[in-house]
Amino acid sequence: MAELKHLTDATFKIEVLDAPAPVLVDFTAVWCGPCQMIAPIVEQIAKDYDGKMTVAKLDIDENVETTMKYGVMGVPTLMLFKDGEPVERLVGYMPKDRIAAKIKPHLEN
Hints:
The protein is 33% helix and 26% strand. The chain is built from 4 helices and 5 strands, in the order E-H-E-H-E-H-E-E-H. Strand 4 and strand 5 form a beta hairpin.
């Protein structure tokens, strides 16, 4: 079963930018209602795509440097990184099928 990684400013480079496989990062906050709503969907995506990509969470309040670097202005924001670059950005709550439709084209078969 895929475990969600919990990222920090200190681990972001090694866990995301240097990762050999795509990484979906959930920029989130504990006070954010929509973030709590999307959390089970993100966990399900982690299970569905286990072995094809990594799924991780980053608390925006505790990791301001990374949040600012990638221009995250609202949460939840999901960003898919591939080869160290952001290739997809999804802002706000959305259903699983819509998230999957955006990330599938970036995953190698």
